[in-house]
Amino acid sequence: xxxxxxxxxxxxxxxxxxxxxxxxxxxxxxxxxxxxxxxxxxxxxxxxxxxxxxxxxxxxxxxxxxxxxxxxxxxxxxxxxxxxxxxxxxxxxxxxxxxxxxxxxxxxxxxxxxxxxxxxxxxxx
Length: 125
Description:
The protein is α/β, with parallel strands linked by helices. It has helices at about 35-45, 65-70, 90-105, 115-125; strands at about 5-15, 15-25, 50-55, 60, 80-85, 110. The protein has a single domain (about 5-125), classed as Transcription Regulator spoIIAA, CATH 3.30.750.24. The chain is built from four helices and six strands, in the order ββαββαβαβα. A hairpin with a 2-residue loop joins strand 1 and strand 2 (about 15-25).
């Protein structure tokens, strides 16, 4: 029996920035691989090098180990993007870890709580 998705990914390209909004609930997913594969497909089709990912309306987060594995195991054919991650302050510790792990893997990712500041940061890149 196929499980129904409990999250939704919306995407658009504005001013050469791929803007992705992920909302819903991923707290009960056994694997985030389906969601990550969807993100990769969106990234590959966008043909841009800047991405804003808004997860403020997403319930549930990857664990520290899942974040580490996600960043370290990015597929070789994944587009290299400058990423602004927009989240809520309650996840600052996890998001900070994600930012640091991404930096260590030569991935440009910065965490924000303000979407306008995230857009400004991307404009300057």
